[in-house]
Design goal:
- By secondary structure, the chain is of the alpha/beta class.
- The chain has one domain: Metallo-beta-lactamase, Chain A (4-Layer Sandwich).
- Helices cover 30% and strands 25% of the residues.
- The strands form two sheets. Strands 6-5-4-3-2-1-14 form a seven-stranded mixed beta sheet. A seven-stranded mixed beta sheet has the order 7-8-9-10-11-12-13.
- Strand 10, helix 6 and strand 11 form a beta-alpha-beta unit.
- Bound molecules: zinc ion (2 copies).
Length: 307
């Protein structure tokens, strides 16, 4: 009882925990790489598993015991480099990680099989010396979303239905997915865009009528400034790549409005880790101008979005 009374509003019950919201492969001081946790009935569904996922699970008070399923949006390393550590430190955690299914684009099954190749000695030493339990199994699943833009049922358990659709994330990324979670006991619908360039036609369909749309976010004006400081050819190349593969924050209110999303949550901030007030200062005037009346949230890492 006392424990419950100490909990802050939104810290229990179904929720999204923004474990890491800093996009891109370059590590920024004090920022955590992409990983989002949907918590339903104390089960933790991870969407992406960036570098800091294990530490952030501990910081958030979630730990590892409730983690059963990991959904990878695409195989850019800022979304996956935390996978080996999730298993290694999940194994030595108290209580430990029981084992995970890792769902993602083709290549995920092979990646899960080879995830700890080269770590045999580390695992062996703690197996013989320190009394940890069975090593958590990681079962990989290649999610083959149809090319025609249709929606694929990925997984169902007692808590959630999980669906996926393809999103465009630049021509070199053959497989990038958005995931939709339908919470069974409440009917709440949460959509995670993954990395994509707004507006994405498939995302608009899968996000239709959702309660929460978590969407990647880019400050294109900051990219203009960065590009201006580079040799012309490199600057133009950088701009072309980032503009065609990612979503300007200025486009997101229209995406949320078209979908009828009740709440828009910004995530995967690039190329600069602005404080939330800066992101909101960009998004809010656009929302007012076009008449998007849903709430817009610009979270920091570890912020909680109640469902
Ligand atoms: Zn990314
Ligand atoms: Zn990416």
């Amino acid at each position: 009882m006392e424990e419950q009374q100490r909990q802050m509003p939104g810290q229990s019950g179904d929720r999204i925990v923004m474990l890491g919201v800093n996009g891109g492969p370059v590590i920024s001081p004090h920022e955590a790489k992409p990983a989002l946790a949907l918590v339903v009935n104390d089960a933790v569904y991870l969407v992406d598993c960036g570098l800091d996922t294990s530490r952030q699970l501990v910081h958030a008070g979630l730990g590892f015991a409730g983690v059963r399923e990991v959904f990878i949006t695409h195989h850019h390393l800022d979304h996956t480099s935390g996978l080996p550590a999730l298993l290694l430190h999940g194994w030595t955690a108290r209580p430990p990680l029981p084992g995970v299914n890792i769902w993602g684009p083709p290549g995920t099954k092979l990646q899960a099989t080879n995830l700890l190749a080269g770590f045999e000695q580390e695992i062996g030493l703690f197996q013989t010396g320190d009394g940890f339990g069975a090593f958590p199994a990681a079962e990989g699943h290649d999610v083959e979303v149809p090319l025609d833009g249709s929606i694929l049922r990925v997984m169902e358990d007692d808590n959630v239905l999980v669906d996926a659709t393809r999103v465009f994330h630049g021509p070199e990324v053959a497989n990038a997915y958005a995931y939709r979670f339908t919470v069974k006991h409440t009917g709440k619908v949460v959509v995670f865009s993954g990395d994509t360039a707004a507006p994405d036609a498939n995302l608009a369909v899968i996000a239709k009528g959702c309660d929460v749309l978590v969407h990647e976010t880019q400050d294109n004006s900051a990219i203009e400034r960065i590009a201006a400081g580079l040799p012309r050819h490199r600057g133009e190349h950088l701009k072309k790549h980032l503009f065609e593969a990612h979503s300007s924050v200025l486009d997101l209110p229209a995406v949320a409005k078209a979908a009828g999303a009740k709440k828009l949550v910004l995530s995967h901030y690039t190329p600069v880790a602005h404080p939330p007030v800066v992101w909101l200062a960009m998004a809010t005037p656009v929302a007012e101008a076009i008449g998007y009346t849903g709430e817009i949230v610009a979270p920091r890492a570890l912020d909680v979005i109640p469902l």
